[in-house]
């Protein structure tokens, strides 16, 4: 299947693995890229330019296909060495970068001068248009269903994707709630040129996370996520667990007086304990409503091949309906 996204990134299938904290290591990115999609290393998980450079090199040892690096721009008293991370990406010969969080304009000149294609993750049409304005090559349009940060507008993809198609001139992919061939065909129908999957890729054989995490996703339904940090306007969709329910109780109790310090125990520094050690009640971890559509743990190749077969079957069925 050829779309503007497969042509832009030099990939076989219009499927991108989004950056995910303590998931997007070389093993994950290489497995997706080898299966014909675009795998993504999560830059801030590595943290330093040296570690990111080593991870890029490791990924190159595992695949000769295109892969990218995610750079998320977050407010911080001690921000990461973004110039150093960008240099590691450029020096490593990476040709695709997924940016997220705040406006990535600070790094755009260096990335564009190096011939790197930039796809920015956005949760609204207005942010997508800004990404287009500053020179991003594509946008990942992230609906309210998504795991992680859905923004504050609460617009689901059945509205957000057509709105993006109406407004954008650059290609975009769907993100949030994407799991199978139905997701891909629906995304194409609403104007996207592919789809980005996060949670679905955690539940794969190659995902470098504890088996407890994968089993938690398979066991979950679409009702098992919660929205936390809404009072702080830093909303995050996470899998429910004891720590998350405790956090929500603090939010209800403190109301407008809630401060980040009140919930730091449930949200700060918990990812290594969850993703690597399998302590599923350690704190809040990002998970999409799409968990309700995930029932197995295939390899990345099995998953992507299945998605493409499902998509082709659906398109053929629609063609038959039109011919009838």
Mean pLDDT: 97
Euclidean distance between termini CA atoms:
25 Å
Low-confidence segments: none
Using DSSP, what is the number of strands? 10
Task: Give the class from helix and strand content and strand pairing.
Answer: alpha/beta
Main sheet record: 8 strands, parallel
The value of Rg in angstroms is 19 Å
| Helix-strand pattern | HEHEHHEHEHEHEHEHEHHEEHHHH
Widest sheet, order of strands: 1-8-7-6-5-4-3-2
Helix content: 40-55%
- The shape is globular
Total helical elements: 15
**Hey, roughly how much beta strand do the residues contain?**
5-15%
How is this structure best described in words?
By secondary structure, this protein is an alpha/beta fold. The chain has helices at 4-9, 26-34, 43-46, 49-62, 82-91, 108-113, 125-133, 157-167, 181-189, 199-202, 211-219, 242-254, 260-267, 271-276, 300-323, and strands spanning 15-17, 39-42, 67-73, 96-101, 117-122, 138-142, 172-175, 195-197, 225-228, 236-239. The strands form two sheets. Strands 1-8-7-6-5-4-3-2 form an eight-stranded parallel beta sheet. Strand 4, helix 6 (108-113) and strand 5 (117-122) form a beta-alpha-beta unit. Helix 2 packs parallel to helix 4 and helix 9 (181-189) crosses helix 15. The chain is globular and about 60 Å long. The chain starts with a helix and ends with a helix.
């Amino acid at each position: 299947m050829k779309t503007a996204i497969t042509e832009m990134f030099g990939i076989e299938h219009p499927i991108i693995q989004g950056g995910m904290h303590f998931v997007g290591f070389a093993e994950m990115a290489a497995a997706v890229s080898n299966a014909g999609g675009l795998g993504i290393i999560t830059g801030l998980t590595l943290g330093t330019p040296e570690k990111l450079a080593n991870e890029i090199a490791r990924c190159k040892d595992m695949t000769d296909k295109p892969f990218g690096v995610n750079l998320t721009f977050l407010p911080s008293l001690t921000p990461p060495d973004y110039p150093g991370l960008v240099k590691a990406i450029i020096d490593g010969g990476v040709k695709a970068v997924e940016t997220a969080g705040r406006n990535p304009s600070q790094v755009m000149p260096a990335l564009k001068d190096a011939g790197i294609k930039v796809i920015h993750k956005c949760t609204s049409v207005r942010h997508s248009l800004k990404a287009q304005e500053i020179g991003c090559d594509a946008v990942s349009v992230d609906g309210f269903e998504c795991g992680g940060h859905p923004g504050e507008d609460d617009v689901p993809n059945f509205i957000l994707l057509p709105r993006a198609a109406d407004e954008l001139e650059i290609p975009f992919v769907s993100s949030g709630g994407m799991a199978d061939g139905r997701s891909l065909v629906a995304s194409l129908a609403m104007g996207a040129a592919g789809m980005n999957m996060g949670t679905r890729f955690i539940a794969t054989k190659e995902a470098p996370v504890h088996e407890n995490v994968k089993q938690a996703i398979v066991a979950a339904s679409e009702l098992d996520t919660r929205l936390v940090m809404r009072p702080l306007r830093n909303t995050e969709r996470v899998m429910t667990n004891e720590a998350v329910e405790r956090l929500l109780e603090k939010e209800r109790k403190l109301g407008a007086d809630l401060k980040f310090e009140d919930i730091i125990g449930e949200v700060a520094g918990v990812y290594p304990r969850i993703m690597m050690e399998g302590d599923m009640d350690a704190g809040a971890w990002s998970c999409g409503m799409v968990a309700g559509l995930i029932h197995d743990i295939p390899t990345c190749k099995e998953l992507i091949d299945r998605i493409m077969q499902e998509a082709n079957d659906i398109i053929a069925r629609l063609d038959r309906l039109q011919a009838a």
